[in-house]
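Narrative of activities, Objective 1.

The group set out to show that a structural description can be obtained from nothing but a protein's sequence at a throughput compatible with the screening campaign. Below is one input-output pair from the validation batch, recorded exactly as produced.
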Amino acid sequence: MAADGQETVARRIAAALRRHGVAMIFGQSLPSAVVLACEAIGIRQIAYRQENMGGAMADGFARRAGRTAVVCAQNGPAATLLVPPLAEALKASVPVVALVQEVERAQADRNAFQELDHIALFQPCTKWVRRIQTADRVDDYVDQAFLAAASGRPGPAALLLPADLLREAAPADPVPRTADYGAWPLDRPCPDLQAVGAAARLIATARQPVVLAGGGALATGAPQALAALQEAAHLPVFTTNMGKGAVDEHHPLSAGVLGALTGPRSLGRHSRPLLVAADVVLLVGTRTNQNGTDSWRLLPPGARLIHLDIDPQEIGRNHEALRLVGDAAAGLQALAAALAALDLRQRAAARPNLETRIATAWSAFAEDLRPLLQANAGPIRPEQVMAELQPLLTPRSTVVGDASYASMWVVGQLRGLAAGMRFLTPRGLAGLGWGLPLAIGAKLAAPDAPVVALAGDGGFAHAWAELETLARHRIALPVVVLNNGVLGFQKDAETVKFGAYTTACHFGPVDHAAIARACGCEGLRIAAAGEVGPALRHALAADGPVLLEVMTDPDAHPPLSLFDGTLDRSEV
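Output recorded for this entry:
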């Protein structure tokens, strides 16, 4: 036990966090010694109601802030609830450090209260997991956790803290540390310049090159580098769901989100032929995963692929490609420099036709939506909500969608206003309920920037308790709940695959606006399309949290390829 006034391990951990630029932690008072030490030096605790949500708050903070976030939890059941958000962060490449209390060292392997093998628990869902064993290694392990989270392909790290160790005296460090490893990407490795030159020559001489940008293209500095390359090399750019926001979607060479959004009344219905005809495809920061490639059917089989990614194992995982291993921003800047030395007259000559084709696709998409947007009878269509939200957005806005259909409405119906505008969706594992906590984290990361959260009623049921978190911290966040009374994707997917759906797909009536009011938030229910716009404007102008419960059409579904010729048979 440390003597009065002597620095403890807990205080040393708090000091190390502050050195790494941590001004806020997501916790629920545990490990208490660490949280008390953090609050004593001005590190703010955002107290969540449930660990699952706290981990997602840290994820949203890291995505929006460009800094590694910290979440804390107790041992045992609290630790197990961190697994889902850490798994999402691992798949989505988001740096989070989890500080998890453990039983006292003398009690280990004796069936102590809430004792669990946390190393085994966290190994599948983190990049790195370790336990501090001695008081003289605190800074070593805290630094290692931040290095693991923010270097290479970012992801979560877990640091385990025995409760008795936190009370011990921490010996003075003979050489005080000053390094700050809190920003990400931590390093900016540039791809091999010989490979960059080869890629530049492929692009310059291609008949119809295109870019498909994933979530890695949103790393700090990458959207600006991609925008410069798009303009200088006259390249049309598509994005995946997670890559949305990497380019300004009003740029004449921006073709929007593709992936599986290719059914009737989708932009992809009109823009996909541009990718199908490509002879060279530059992949930027994408895992070439199922959702991003429409079950690996999106990329034209005859095209030459160039793949820029920080993770060397993702290049060639699903498609053979010219390897550009490195940071997205550094790689795109190097590629732009190499292209500047080549003859790009062929690319420039092709640009007017490309711009016309892309503009025609956007116009056809708008025309397809017109009948839905003009409908006044019956339940509100989600497309109407998105259309009312669109003119209220600014380039600094962040739009957060929960998993399942909420994500698809956000990425498929809204249009990005600037390179680097943020659209956050939990598409790493796509767990229901993470939209609200992601939005809380994003708002706390940039309090002066507007944030809007959208969730379906099925997903929002996982996160109701965090309405009290919003009210307690006075976080000015509009939350739009699209209430259709069903578990939409499950119902529709089961109908397509089996011709029937289970009894779990329908919910009993829930008054979400009343729940919000009971938690101290403003809550409004919207039942007519004409009420949506005024309600959104009110919620965005409010100085506190506002929940808008929008009663939406239970038969509305995004234009996914799965429904093309099945649920959407009559529209083909």
